[in-house]
Amino acid sequence: MREKSKAGILRLLIPIAVLAIVILYLFFNFSVKTKSATEEAVQREFQETVSNRASRIGAELQYVRIAGEMVAQMIKSTSVQREEIVGQYMLAVTEKTGAYEAIFYQKDKMCVDKSGNSIALNDKQYFPLIAQLADETQYLYVEDDEITGQAAIMLMVPVPETEAALLLYYPTNTIRDMMKIDTDYGKNAAIAIVNSKGGILIHNEMESKFLENGSLWTNVGNEFGVQVGKMKNSLKRENIGFTVIVADNETRTLVYAPIEVNSWMLVVGVDQSYVDQKMDQAWKKICVMLYQLVGAMLLFVVIFAIIYIFSRVKNEEKSRILRERADTDLLTGLNNKLATENRIKEYIKDNPDTLAMMFVLDIDDFKKINDTMGHAFGDEVLSNLGKRISANFRVTDIIGRTGGDEFTIFLKALKDDSNTLSEAKKLVNFFKGFEVGEYVKYSVSASIGAAVFPADGNDFESLYKAADQALYKAKKRGKNQLAFYDDRDRKE
Fold it and tell me: Which of 168, 180, 245, 312 is the 20 to 30 A CA-CA neighbour of 147?
């Protein structure tokens, strides 16, 4: 026992020692890796948020482009480009995309707006850009559309195989609303859409040195040339980026991501105090994780001890269940043949001088039941018999299915010989009322042989042989009855 106890303690200490080594290793590396890991985590979080918002803005502008190109194709397919038809197309595209104006431009001809009104464009400051018709859709930022007096993103959608284009004016205020991400970067975040030259196209009007002069590069000091160069390269390659830059003593972390339109980028200048706050929050989370790790170690010790104590109990219970399953007939839920025989033998060995009785019964004409009613019904007969016959005897008695339609019942510790007759009568009466079937009741009878222990046999083999011979008598007498080996039922 002492050796087993030592072995159990050793098994308990090994995982604790391993856990302690792991904890020490984590603490050793913690001071080296925590700061960089925290910065990387915050950086990834910022970049993911900016990238998602940039993709959303880009998807919105791409949707406007696709809708415009579809309308341009419809205009091209119109045999006669009447103003009212073109106007209907343009009105539809503005309603679907959110563009506030659409103009059908034809070179050297009068232009038409979405309401079908003629409009002149040759006096607009951006007219030279319109006059240079391109083969693909162009995005232009105009600070003043010279129509409504507001800033817009203008899409020039060429009408295929013509010298005409569809001009869509998309409001910058809608883009500005999509740029609102204060909950992710704090209320003081400077947010802007920047072109490939660093020009600030749209911003959230935050008071920041980074948003002055209309150019991001102009606002950054010369000492940050390396970071600016990195941003320029990212803008060209449309990569996501993250860098810390100072503009006139204002420190911000710039996070940028492409919106996949004209090499434009969404740039978010996060106030450095907010970044530091996020770092501190991440650090506190790590500290909490450490406390949780220590708590987990203590909890592990407790749980392991509980598991160690109760594992044997559980294993023993599992083994008992497996033994019971191995001893059970699946169809009837009774003992199977081997279990029935072993339990009767065990009782006879332990109680050689007590009065007991064995019944061996066969269902009459069971083959006929299978042939006429079907095997499924035959199984139902066996299953019902197994469930219902147990209720007629004590829990301590042994009942089992020992053959296809053969059942063995062993009644323990009977009082006297009269008790054997009363138990036999009880079994006979059971079969007088035994019916199977949900809608049509089918009466099932059985031939039963009975033998008394120890008078008819003082071991299992001889007792079973005597009961089997009694069963043969019952069948020979016409079935549907019970016969004793010593004919005591006929001596009364």
Answer: 180
Q: What is the pLDDT of residues 241-271, one digit of tens each?
A: 888 888 888 888 888 888 888 888 898 888 8
Task: Give residue for tokens 């073109």.
Answer: 86
Q: CB within 8 A of 30, min separation 6: which ones?
A: 290
Q: What distance lies between CA 260 and its chain's CA centroid?
A: 33
Which region holds residue 180: left if phi is over 0, alpha if psi is between -120 and 50, else beta? beta
DSSP string, 154-200: EEEEEPTTSSEEEEEEEEHHHHHHHT--HHHH-TT-EEEEE-TT-BE
Instruction: Assess contact for 48 and 255: CB atoms under 8 A.
Output: no
**What's the first-to-final CA gap in the chain, in angstroms?**
62
Per DSSP, the chain holds a count of helices (H) and strands (E) of: 14, 18
Cβ count near 423 (within 10 Å) = 19
| Tokens read off for 80 | 């006669």
Phi, psi of 297, deg, nearest 5: -65, -45
Sheet containing 241-247: order of strands: 200-203, 190-194, 265-271, 250-258, 241-247
Q: Which residue has the higher pLDDT, 176 or 249?
A: 176
Q: Please give the backbone phi and psi of residue 256, each rounded to the nearest 5 degrees, phi first.
A: -140, 150
Question: How far is residue 475 CA from its own chain's centroid?
Answer: 63
Whether 219 has a pLDDT exceeding 50, the answer reads yes
Q: What's the alpha-carbon Rg for the chain, to the nearest Å?
A: 46
**Helix (H), strand (E) at residue 214:** none
Closest-CA residue to 184 (of 278, 323, 312, 94): 278
Phi-psi region of 121 (alpha: psi -120 to 50; beta: other; left: phi over 0): alpha
Task: Please give the share of the chain, as a percent, with pLDDT higher than 70.
Answer: 82
One-letter amino acid of 40: E
Tally Cβ neighbours within 10 Å of residue 364. 19
pLDDT above 50: residue 2 = no
Q: How far apart are CA 171 and CA 476, in angstroms?
A: 104
Give the start-end residues of each E strand in 292-386. 355-363
pLDDT by residue (tens digit) across 86-130?
A: 888 888 889 999 999 999 988 878 788 888 888 888 888 888 888
What percentage of the chain exceeds 90 in pLDDT? 33
